[in-house]
Design a protein that fits this description.
203 residues; Arc Repressor Mutant, subunit A; two-stranded antiparallel ribbon; 41% helix
Length: 203
């Protein structure tokens, strides 16, 4: 056996699908009128760069004179829902009960109905949640405790007969420690006993 290098098959890049032009639509209509819609292979040979399936889908979905392109009615929507429940998304069978509706039209209409029903369900859930009493059950905000001004209690030193004032700060409840407090009055620095009575002797 010879060790020949193996070659890998590379698929050519797929050409992007080009939409039908107005000239192609007119030509396709004339070919169907003259040749009929039984053999799309013959019709595709007369069209440039078009496959038989492209010609068939273009004519039956958009160009056929018997197509119903008017707005959908509520009766047609009900028929569409019923047939999809019976046959599933078999659009060729579903469209038999719809007067002149194409498969693409029925498919797009069903997607639109699904989006509408989904949006209605979401809106109903939001309305139900907001109508419950727990929706706006916000605990009341506790007011700040009323600040009490510091009290100055006078007292005397019997030896020197000197009057002092002792400042007593108010006690703040612990339940309000987490809340920001209003600014407190500045503290007053009082002189010490040695500053007032330097000759004071402590025993």
């Amino acid at each position: 056996m010879s060790n020949s290098p193996q070659t890998t098959m590379v698929k050519p890049p797929r050409k992007p699908r080009q939409p039908f032009t107005q000239k192609e639509d007119e030509k396709l209509k004339q070919l169907v009128e003259s040749l009929g819609d039984a053999d799309w292979t013959i019709i595709a040979r007369c069209m440039e760069n078009r496959t038989p399936r492209q010609c068939r889908d273009r004519y039956k979905e958009y160009l056929m004179p018997s197509l119903n392109t008017s707005d959908w009615t509520p009766e047609e929507d009900n028929i569409l829902r019923q047939k999809i429940k019976e046959y599933g998304k078999k659009w060729a069978i579903v469209c038999i009960s719809l007067n002149g509706r194409s498969e693409t039209s029925a498919k797009n209409r069903w997607r639109l109905l699904e989006r509408r029903e989904s949006n209605m369900k979401n809106e109903a859930k939001i309305a139900e949640a907001c109508s419950s009493p727990d929706c706006y059950d916000i605990p009341p905000v506790q007011p700040y405790p009323q600040m009490i001004e510091p009290m100055y209690v006078p007292y005397f030193i019997p030896q020197e007969n000197v009057r002092f004032e002792k400042m007593i700060q108010p006690v703040i409840p612990t339940s309000f420690v987490r809340d920001p407090l209003p600014p407190q009055p500045p503290r007053v620095k009082f002189p010490s006993l040695l500053d007032i009575c330097p000759n004071l002797v402590c025993f």
